[in-house]
TrEMBL record:
Subcellular localization(s) per the UniProt record: Cytoplasm
EC number(s) on file: 3.5.4.19
Coiled-coil residues: none
MF (Gene Ontology): magnesium ion binding; phosphoribosyl-AMP cyclohydrolase activity; phosphoribosyl-ATP diphosphatase activity; zinc ion binding
Gene name of the record: hisI
Organism: Teichococcus oryzae
Subunit composition and interactions: Homodimer.
GO biological process assignments: L-histidine biosynthetic process
Record's keyword annotation contains DNA repair: no
Protein known as: Phosphoribosyl-AMP cyclohydrolase
Main location class: cytoplasm
Reactions it catalyzes: 1-(5-phospho-beta-D-ribosyl)-ATP + H2O = 1-(5-phospho-beta-D-ribosyl)-5'-AMP + diphosphate + H(+); 1-(5-phospho-beta-D-ribosyl)-5'-AMP + H2O = 1-(5-phospho-beta-D-ribosyl)-5-[(5-phospho-beta-D-ribosylamino)methylideneamino]imidazole-4-carboxamide
Amino acid sequence: MPVTDPAARARFLAAVRFNEHGLLPVIAQAAPAEGGQGGEVLMMAWMNAEALEETLATGRVVYFSRSRKALWRKGESSGQVQHWTDLRLDCDGDTLLALVEQKGVACHTGRRSCFFQALRDDEMTAITAPDVDPKVLYAG
């Protein structure tokens, strides 16, 4: 759901408090679907002002890759695209919750969520298996 009004995008951007590196933490959560399913936390990533502006303008979620120091259009190499249905700033304006429609898996490990490791019986344990082999995801 793109924001077509540039003034509305500017107002949203003005409400954001980016950190000292010009970044904003973003939690991507599965948007509720028909029948009430959704709510799963899928991933955490970062946006800079340019990524947030493009996300607002296009409806497609765009992050900033700290390792590549470049915009990262979610799904550009895997096809696992995110489109936002709602963007919510926290009370301090320094964290964004993006409710997203996730095409395929969110995690580069081939899992639906990046939050698949948990402490079980005093050991770190993978609590979900990959839905797709990462080699298949990134074969193209």
